[in-house]
Amino acid sequence: MTSASEKICRILSCLSDRRICKLTDIARFTGLDLSSVLRILKDLEKLDFVEREPQTKEYTLGREIYAMHHAMVARQDIRALARPALVRMARKYGDSLILSIPSNWESVCVDTCLGDYPIRANYLEIGSRRPLGVGAGSLVLLAALSDAQQQMYLPCIHEQIDKRYPMFNQSMLKTHIALCRQQQYAVLCDVVVNQMGGIGVAIRAPDGTPIAALSLASLSERILSRQDSIAADLIQEARLIEKTHFPAR
């Protein structure tokens, strides 16, 4: 049975993706019934954790969430440290750069920087969520976890892959995790969007825990033709962020 607090957390997590804002969408993505979602949203709205637009009837995160966010950012903001790397890589390669962070069995896009190449990977925006393993950034985050942590998250991940990603499967995920651990970066093409792919590198805490991922997304042919160069530059940028974020490392 799902506890009341877990239901609230599911709804708030869901609302971090701006594309999920209708009552029916929130219910579908959280796996909760409409009446429960509506009741919780009304309570959250009273306390300013959620806002509802009267005309469109769309829900968004409220002022209290932003207050909590600013308190967290004041203490530690990986985005500010990673932003120069995103800009440098976007200028050098002309493609889309993405910064993602882990959130339980999902990855969340927290920043992007678009290059000048006309065909862009614009299917991820800030707040977008994916299961760990689906996409280069989320794959490298999953591969960097311990075996025990992976086993804890894999049932949820497998369920989402089977349900939402017809070009991917559990066997492919297992193979890519092993390869990612071997080469210290992830390459994933034609999984989420046909003919599109990415390369991702983990940003780690001193104990090896992945705290974020840098990834470059583009046409699959542009990824594969420059794989070694892109991977080397992403690794260099990730190590620089780690040294800045953890100066005693």
UniProtKB/TrEMBL annotation:
InterPro entries linked to this entry: ArsR-like_HTH, GAF-like_dom_sf, HTH_MetabolicPath_Reg, Tscrpt_reg_IclR_C, Tscrpt_reg_IclR_N, WH-like_DNA-bd_sf, WH_DNA-bd_sf
GO molecular function: DNA binding; DNA-binding transcription factor activity
Keywords: DNA-binding, Transcription, Transcription regulation
Domain IclR-ED: 64-249
Biological process according to GO: negative regulation of DNA-templated transcription
Pfam families: HTH_IclR (PF09339), IclR_C (PF01614)
Ranges where the HTH iclR-type domain occurs: 2-63
This protein's name: IclR family transcriptional regulator
